[in-house]
Amino acid sequence: MTAKPDVKGFYDARTFSIQYVVSDPATRKCSIIDPVLDYDEKSGATATRNADTILDYIREKRLSVEWILDTHPHADHFSAARYLKEKTGAPTAIGARVVEVQKLWKEIYNWPDLQTDGSQWDRLFEAGDTFTVGELQGRVLFSPGHTLASITYVIGDAAFVHDTLFMPDSGTARADFPGGSAKRLWASIEEILSLSGETRLFTGHDYQPDGREPLWESTVAEQKRSNPHIAVKDEAAFVALREARDKTLPMPKLILHALQVNIRGGRLSEPEGNGKRYLKIPLDALAGAAWE
Questions:
Q1: Environment class of 122 (CB within 10 Å of its CB; exposed 0-12, middle 13-18, buried 19+)
Q2: CB–CB of 153/138 below 8 Å?
Q3: 290 pLDDT more than 80
Q4: Which helix (DSSP H) or strand (DSSP E) does residue 65 occupy?
Q5: Could you tell me how far CA 276 lies from the centroid of its own chain?
């Protein structure tokens, strides 16, 4: 039998993001996946409310953190990986192709001093790499399409797919960010759907279609049965559907804010002479302006 980890989701309504603590019931070891560092774009304020809620849960359940994992450099929220590493001492990890994302965004930000070797994380996972959470076996799938570097963590019977598959009533993730590809996304989805039908899939966002309550857990079988984007069952049809949909979507409001933090493992910029930190926003850098 495939081991069944305990999975606790934490929904952040500001960014529609789900953060996870996945734990081994036998050893009380756990990993944190895709944690959010709070950021208010109107005031420029940062906070650690989401991350502290996760830490409270870990203390309440008497868990020990073995990993702090990101599935990819996020475009819609800041990663709290750095903060949680400081609080827990646990190593951070992300997919090895993050170096390609770093190189791409280094040019967009005109950031000559940015290190693009992935050294901001403790481990870079390649496709097929394995790791453990307590006695649970984990492995890594390379799942590009949404970004160049997206990966899926399969831990026991649970797969953390973030911006690849949404809930069945919400389809799939966009593929029009710099480095994205609808064709690659289709291949990534096909690999995820080759897992056992009972595999639990945990998505990274839920936009509450028709105002329903937030949801984030499905199964491979449910996705095959109910997700309309998958029902096309053909790469060309999927690519056409995805690209047409993406042309209607504005860029995420935090993409230019978040990427400069997240390609550095959740590190904020260093304080300047006045003690304040600053973000750098390139003008006219991305297509997809929403003027109406």
A1: middle
A2: yes
A3: no
A4: strand 64-69
A5: 28
**HEC secondary structure over 17-38:** EEEEEEECCCCCEEEEECCEEE
The closest of 47, 22, 45, 46 to 34, measured between CA atoms, is 22
User: Which residues are CB-contacts of 230 (< 8 A; sequence separation ≥ 6)?
Assistant: 172, 189, 193, 223, 224
What phi-psi label fits residue 158: left (phi over 0), alpha (psi between -120 and 50 degrees) or beta?
A: beta
In the chain, the amino acid numbered 256 is L
Strand bridging mode 36-40 / 200-203 = unpaired
Length of the chain: 292
For the stretch 115-161, pLDDT in tens is 999 999 999 999 999 999 999 999 999 999 999 999 999 999 999 99
Nearest to 202 by CA among 215, 184, 213: 215
**6-262 maps to which CATH number?**
3.60.15.10
* CA atoms of 5 and 59, how far apart (whole Å): 18
Q: Where in the chain are the domains?
A: 6-262
The residues with which 21 forms a beta bridge, in sequence order, are 8, 32
Q: How far apart are CA 210 and CA 216, in angstroms?
A: 15
pLDDT at 233: 75
Q: What average pLDDT does the segment 272-290 reach?
A: 92
d(CA 144, CA 186): 9
Residue closest to 165 by CA, chosen among 71, 48, 277 = 71
Split at pLDDT 50, 70, 90, the class of 1 is low
Helices (H), the chain: 49-60, 81-88, 98-108, 182-192, 220-226, 228-231, 235-246, 255-262
* Helix, strand, coil distribution of the chain in percent, nearest 5: 25, 25, 50
Among residues 40, 39, 32, 106, the alpha carbon closest in space to that of 63 is found at 32
